Amino acid sequence: MIRSEIIKGQRSWVLENKSIRLCLTELGGHMAPVVFMKDSVQPIEPFYISPWAEEGLNLENEPEVLVPLRGDFFCLPFGGDNSWNNESHPPHGEVSGNKWALASEQSENSIVLKMDTTARRGSITKSIGLKEGENNLYINHLVEGFTGSTSLGHHAIFPGGTKKYISTSPIKFGYTNKYEGASYNQGEYYSLASLEKFKSLEKVPTVWKDNDNTDCSVFPARKGFVDILQVYNKSEENFAWSAVTVPEEGYLWFSLKDSEILPSTVLWMENMGRHQAPWNGRNVCIGVEDVCSSFADGLAVSAKNNFLNEKGIKTCHQIKEDSGLSVKYIQGVVRIPEGFDKVKTILKKDDGIEITSVSGKKVFTKVNTEFIHS
């Protein structure tokens, strides 16, 4: 039975079975805390919750998405500047900061929310399903109406602290985020070079002359800076993926996606580099955001001709009135053995996936990968 509680400052719906306890905020549909393997001796709670969640700050003049900021949430449009064709969408869209409603249709192992958007007329249905005996979340966002161009994506966030290794399925290339002028005048400090191409997360260009590359596959890193980059996945027959490995805590988080729907991944690496309120130079987190977008530029850039779509990278979808769009996504957590480091591959195997580390260690977990294309 789905119940409603105040959790970390936000009215939230709670769905749980033997393995998972999932909390979903009414504002914005942000998913956290989520407890995986809750019936074990050492439950796993991977997601971030903002440091101001229970501080009672006045955020009336801030983007709505910052009020519940936590865990994973869906963005439509994805990004900051969402002015387009006389439309004005808030950063990351109404779906990330407005109130969702609990739909009438529910089942024992799923939750269904709905929202009607007004900046552009449409209806979004958010469905999250659990399966007994699994530590996976099966997520679908059905977009109806909302006809026209849009960026979109998932916005999973993880806390700083314990060292994390970030990896994705094979990429064509990546780019650092573009910024202009002295960013510190706006209270933000960047360490990555502006709009530079790279081939691997392990070697990303910086602004420093004496250390011109840095490893962005490890976090926390570069204390005092906030940096953004984007990698563009190669097409995959079964699924593309992202992963966060936390060896000290003995687990990894993974996501599986259709690379035609979510063709890239944005990394938002926040390590005390933002000094304006409510960040106040104290926030440490990393966003692993599977998207169809030009960085976090928003619809204003993603929907137009830009240097990425000129290179064949899809940065927005064209939603048709008669068909809509279904965005399916799987997230899961797996325990890992000692010596398991950064994820090298995730491959479909039997009724699940086999995950192999750079060190050669392997783990298997049961997951219905067919969900992605169903």
Protein model, in words:
This protein has one domain: Beta-galactosidase, Chain A, domain 5. The chain starts with a strand and ends in an 8-residue tail after the last strand. The chain is mostly beta strands. The protein has one helix at 299-302; strands spanning 3-7, 10-16, 21-25, 31-35, 74-75, 82-84, 87-89, 101-102, 110-117, 122-129, 136-145, 148-150, 152-154, 156-159, 164-168, 171-176, 197-198, 204-205, 213-214, 218-219, 225-233, 240-246, 251-257, 264-271, 284-292, 317-319, 325-335, 343-349, 352-357, 362-366. The strands form seven sheets. Strands 8-9-10-11-27-23-22-15-20 form a nine-stranded antiparallel β-sheet, with no helix packed on it. The chain has one helix and 30 strands. 1% of the residues lie in helices and 43% in strands. The longest helix has 4 residues, at 299-302.
Q: Outline, from the CA principal axes?
A: globular
Strand content: 35-45%
- Percent helix, as a range, is under 10%
Low-confidence stretches: none
Which CATH class is shown? Mainly Beta
What is the arithmetic mean of pLDDT?
96
Main sheet: which strands, in order across?
8-9-10-11-27-23-22-15-20
CATH architecture: Distorted Sandwich
Keywords:
mainly beta; eight-stranded antiparallel β-sheet; nine-stranded antiparallel β-sheet; globular; 374 residues; 1% helix; Beta-galactosidase, Chain A, domain 5
Write the layout of secondary structure elements.
Blueprint: E1 3-7, E2 10-16, E3 21-25, E4 31-35, E5 74-75, E6 82-84, E7 87-89, E8 101-102, E9 110-117, E10 122-129, E11 136-145, E12 148-150, E13 152-154, E14 156-159, E15 164-168, E16 171-176, E17 197-198, E18 204-205, E19 213-214, E20 218-219, E21 225-233, E22 240-246, E23 251-257, E24 264-271, E25 284-292, H1 299-302, E26 317-319, E27 325-335, E28 343-349, E29 352-357, E30 362-366
